[in-house]
Amino acid sequence: MIAEPQPHRLSPQEYLDWEATQDIKHEYLDGEVFAMTGSTIAHNLIALNLASTLKAFLRGRGCRVFIADVKVQVSERGAYFYPDVMVSCDERDRPAVNLIQHPCLIVEVLSPTTEAFDRGEKFRRYRQLSALQEYVLIDATQISVDRFRRLSDTQWELQSFTTEDTLELTSIGWQGAIALLYEDVIFESIPPSS
């Protein structure tokens, strides 16, 4: 989740040097630094459910699953983001210590405050990653998943999923029930209006 930008602009290297000394995570976009805020229990459970399932599935296949605290570098000029779940099967990412550059799958768990950014500007930036094959958006307020699959350099296909559906991630050869992503999730109930 993104909070308020910091007051001054930084170069990508200044950001990386500065952020390595910080107690909290910060994303970077066009010279601006954004502090990451906490998330809800639903958000955390959804990311954990997917990451742990993918980790077990991909064990021994040369892919690595990352969750929340690993940043992705979109380009040499930035942006740098912290996806909720990310998978890289690319050998170029094997020696990586601080960031991933060639993910095949990125997943963002949506919140009301980040949904527009995750669907818009963030996805526009992620599309610059040539290795990225799928971008998945999982709603944390209701059972709803959107998967964008790369068809070509300029074309992406959207498929939406709900409660009874099976999500297929062709980038890593996995499929599973949407219900699995929402295991143990309790949605916030909205009181009826009077």
From TrEMBL:
State the UniProt keywords alphabetically.
Endonuclease, Hydrolase, Nuclease
* Keyword Transmembrane helix in record: no
Record field: transmembrane: none
Ranges for the Putative restriction endonuclease domain? 13-175
Question: Would I find Hydrolase among this entry's keywords?
Answer: yes
Which InterPro entries would you find in this protein's record?
Nuclease_put_TT1808, Restrct_endonuc-II-like, Uma2
GO MF terms listed in the record are:
endonuclease activity
Q: Which Gene3D superfamilies match?
A: tt1808, chain A
What protein is this chain from?
Answer: Uma2 family endonuclease
Native organism is Thermoleptolyngbya oregonensis NK1-22
| Taxonomic lineage from the root | Bacteria, Bacillati, Cyanobacteriota, Cyanophyceae, Oculatellales
